[in-house]
Amino acid sequence: MTVLALSALIRPLLEPRLPQGLDVRWFMTKEEALEAVPEAEIGWFDMYDQQAMAETLRAATKLKWLNSIYAGLDFMPMDVLIERGITVTNGAGINALTIAEYVVMGMLTTAKGYRDVVRAQDRREWLVDSPGKRELAGSKALLLGYGAIGQLIKPRLEAFDVEVTVVRRSGGAKGEDGVLAPDEWRDKLGGFDWVILAVPATPETDGMIGADELAAMKSDAVIVNIARGAVIDQPALVEALKSKTIGGAFLDVTTPEPLPPEHELWTLDNAHITMHLSGRAQDKMFQRSADRFLANLDHYLKGEPVSPVFDPRKGY
Length: 316
Fold this sequence. Notes:
Elements: E1 3-7, H1 11-14, E2 23-27, H2 30-36, E3 42-44, H3 50-59, E4 65-67, H4 78-84, E5 87-89, H5 96-112, H6 114-123, E6 140-144, H7 150-158, E7 163-167, E8 179-180, E9 194-197, H8 211-216, E10 222-225, H9 234-242, E11 248-251, E12 271-273, H10 285-301
Parallel strand pairs: 1-2, 1-3, 3-4, 4-5, 6-7, 6-9, 7-8, 9-10, 10-11, 11-12
């Protein structure tokens, strides 16, 4: 009988729909997980404590398939996944729509100075002029990362008449406009009003935006990060924001998370911090994840491929 060890967080959406003939072991705490997983062939170990998830994986010595709602799994021990040959399906695309909407919201919020409008409302102060006067129409955005999220960001920005240039690993086809290869974008940073980071967390993307890249941007450019905090050299970003080397930053992700209350980023008027909420700004995340898992479970039990497959060697 196939043994499954599954987080009870998703139990209400899964249990009534699971096929018969499975040995399903639910857990809520790390201690319960460590008891449930040693015999498991299939696991869904998502918990709020990512360190506990990593410990649970190490204890699951018979695991063949690991599922997760997370798109980025950089906190999991990649060496264990590789050595044991575990198939991993992640949450790539589950939150793509709401994150793409968040990017548009962040750009509009920054362009129109909307945070200052909200603060004025809190003070019951009637503003006589707009604190932000930028228009998205006619502006230029550099989109680094063209996976599930990036592919939804681009058309939404184009609907606002933003000219979007994407950076993708394969580069552009001969004669294709609006596409850059990974070795081409740095020399062109000065031509963009918006720099949007939607790349996976890998050794190659770690610190990809540093002091040199920030210095190459337009003085009013805004950087939007919905990838991982580590993609930006955060101390360099703080200095760029303080010195007004760039116009601003809309940060859904930071290093570390949660950002400590005393961190200087909180104090900067040209930094918007949204506490990694972009993927949570929806009510369908768990339902979409459950539907995908059940479809994959059907494929797995029939010996068919599952998807989307996360490659621990690449980190995405």
